[in-house]
From TrEMBL:
Superkingdom per UniProt: Bacteria
Originating species: Listeria booriae
GO MF term list: NAD binding; oxidoreductase activity, acting on the CH-CH group of donors, NAD or NADP as acceptor; oxidoreductase activity, acting on the CH-OH group of donors, NAD or NADP as acceptor
Coiled coil: none
Ranges where the UDP-glucose/GDP-mannose dehydrogenase C-terminal domain occurs: 308-398
Protein name: Nucleotide sugar dehydrogenase
């Protein structure tokens, strides 16, 4: 089978390489000449375990080639970004989807299958994709087969989960669904759930909206507990002993290409019917500023003005800083007048070592749950002006005995000056 994948980002590239690994002839398409040249030379531009090794394998087999232009294929998979618009409800920007369709339609022939993997708003397949295909004279479900098959993977474990996770197959028609199922059936070992396109679109969005709402509850609980002088983390631990309760963990906010983006697609489609989702977004969006306020309060007791941030990515053990709340915290601290240094071993643009980043600092703020941050060694904290750690991810397991360790469980206990208390309020 010949497959053309449009978009070689965090989802498109692993998808293209996996299809090639299972014997298909795959052309991966991206607009960046530099990126495609690097891929053809065996170098990947994202951090994902096992991906570079798999790339080398499919290049040697001749099953994968990266290009800046589409080629004729039997199956076209669209995995391009779908950012938020800047309108009132931050609705789904489908311009990249439309551009991808425009680029492949000259190559599309009768009996081909077009699959959109990009996360899209409800009714995008019917209201945007289908009309563009039909405008070219194709009868959907007879000449051309359209489906939405959203990814459901965890960065850091993508290659495994693409194979073993359940897969939603949402066709415009039943015939479209079966055609798309046959494509993924060449490697998917998880359940393939056949459904209609609209149900597939909304299901994907609700998976991430559920998590966003639950995290908002945890973040609001952290604020309440700090205000009342109660250990939020202990409250969550005990509440989750109930067999039907699963409160998530609080943090510095929500980021990434899913949780910080997808709920808006549902909200924009039904603004009057989604007050809970809108409130959850507001709570999570408020967390970076809340972290900055807590840092101001903690630093009011410290000597010096330097703060060290551990992590810029939105989650641990990856290099993805898209929509990361850590970036907002960084900007907020700069605006508040702090000298900010950053240590993130997963982000190449941050060259400082842990020792260098901590030199002369008065506070470490942990914003990403990288494995490297589970144990903060003495050769980091010994270099600090004053050794204090504010762990917003509750990831740190060991620090030195002379280090003042703070998280959302004991934040309320930290002694503050009257000035700091005013800042917090």
């Amino acid at each position: 089978m010949k497959i053309t994948v449009i978009g070689l980002g965090y989802i498109g590239l692993p998808t293209a390489i996996l299809f090639a690994k299972y014997g298909h002839k795959v052309t991966g398409v991206d607009l960046s000449p530099l990126m495609t040249a690097q891929l053809n030379a065996g170098f990947i531009h994202i951090e994902e375990p096992g991906l570079e090794k798999d790339l080398e394998e499919v290049l040697l087999s001749g099953n994968f080639y990266a290009s800046t232009k589409p080629v004729s294929a039997d199956v076209y998979i669209i995995a391009v970004p779908t950012p938020n618009k800047t309108d009132q409800y931050q609705s789904c920007d489908t311009s990249y989807i439309e551009a991808a369709l425009t680029s492949i339609l000259p190559y599309v022939k009768v009996s081909d299958t077009i699959i959109v993997e990009s996360t899209i708003a409800p009714r995008t397949m019917v209201d945007v994709v289908q009309p563009m295909v039909e405008k070219d004279g194709f009868a959907v479900g007879e000449d051309i087969f359209l489906a939405h098959c959203p990814e459901r993977v965890l960065p850091g474990n993508i290659m495994h989960e693409l194979v073993h996770n359940p897969r939603i197959i949402g066709g415009i028609t039943d015939a479209c669904t079966e055609k798309a199922a046959a494509v993924y059936g060449t490697f998917v070992k998880g359940e393939m759930m056949r459904t209609q396109a609209g149900e597939a679109e909304l299901s994907k969005l609700m998976e991430n909206t559920y998590r966003d709402v639950n995290i908002a509850l945890a973040n609001e609980l952290a604020k309440i507990s700090n205000h009342l002088g109660i250990n939020a983390l202990r409250v969550i631990e005990m509440a989750n002993k109930h067999p039907r309760v699963n409160i998530h963990q609080p943090g510095p906010g929500v980021g990434g290409h899913c949780l910080a983006v997808d709920p808006y697609f549902v909200i924009a489609a039904s603004p009057k019917q989604s007050p809970l989702m809108q409130t959850a977004r507001a709570v999570n969006n408020s967390m970076p500023a809340y972290v900055v306020q807590q840092v101001q309060a903690l630093m009011a007791e410290q000597e010096g003005n330097q703060v060290t941030l551990f992590g810029l990515t939105y989650k641990g053990n990856i290099d993805d800083i898209r929509e990361s709340p850590a970036m907002e915290v960084k900007d907020g601290l700069h605006k508040a007048g702090f000298e900010v240094r950053v240590f993130d071993p997963h982000v190449s643009e941050q060259p400082l070592t842990g020792e260098e980043a901590c030199e002369g600092s008065s506070l470490i703020v942990v914003l990403s749950d990288h494995n490297e941050f589970r144990n903060i060694p003495a050769n980091y904290t010994d270099r600090m002006r004053e050794a204090m750690v504010f762990d917003t991810k509750n990831i740190v397991q060991h620090v030195g005995t002379k280090v003042n360790y703070v998280n959302y469980g004991n934040l309320y206990k930290v002694k503050r000056t009257q000035k700091a208390a005013i800042v917090q309020s």
